[in-house]
């Protein structure tokens, strides 16, 4: 059942983004930033944790999950280091994901060949 919940919640998040792309004049970049901000906001007020508990990777893998991860890292770092944690916590918590994106992006650039459309 966990797999099914992850699938439909993650899919619903993606469907909402696709509807926003198709039906509004928002650019994909603005929608992605909106998802990260929504993840931060919902995590900050404690609502996103319920979605993570219910859907697991279906809630943590999309970009809203990135905001959730950063918020949790900041909250933990503030509890440990005080105000300095605001600056360091998000990057520390999201470092693995950011590093993976850079490495796999670089590998993709080495394997693929860029061309004009």
Q: What do you see in this structure?
A:
The protein is mainly α. It has helices at residues 2-23, 28-44, 48-55, 57-60, 63-81, 84-111.
Annotation keywords:
6 helices; globular
Element layout with pairings:
Layout lengths: L1 H22 L4 H17 L3 H8 L1 H4 L2 H19 L2 H28 L6
Question: In one word, what is the shape?
Answer: globular
Whole-number tally of structural domains: 1
Gap from first CA to last CA: 42 Å
Mean pLDDT: 89
SS element count, helices:
6
Radius of gyration: 16 Å
Helical percentage: over 70%
Spell the H/E element sequence.
HHHHHH
Largest sheet: none
Assembly level: single chain
Strand content: under 5%
Poorly predicted segments: none
Given the helix and strand composition, which structural class is it? Answer: mainly alpha
Number of strands: 0
């Amino acid at each position: 059942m966990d797999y099914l919940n992850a699938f439909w919640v993650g899919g619903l998040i993606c469907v909402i983004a696709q509807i926003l792309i198709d039906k509004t004049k928002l650019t994909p970049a603005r929608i992605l930033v909106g998802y990260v901000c929504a993840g931060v906001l919902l995590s900050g007020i404690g609502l996103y944790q319920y979605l993570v508990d219910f859907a697991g990777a279906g809630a943590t893998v999309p970009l809203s999950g990135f905001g959730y991860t950063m918020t949790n890292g900041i909250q933990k770092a503030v509890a440990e280091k005080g105000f300095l944690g605001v600056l360091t916590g998000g990057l520390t918590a999201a470092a693995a994901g950011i590093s993976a994106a850079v490495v796999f992006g670089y590998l993709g650039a080495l394997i693929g060949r860029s061309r004009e459309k």
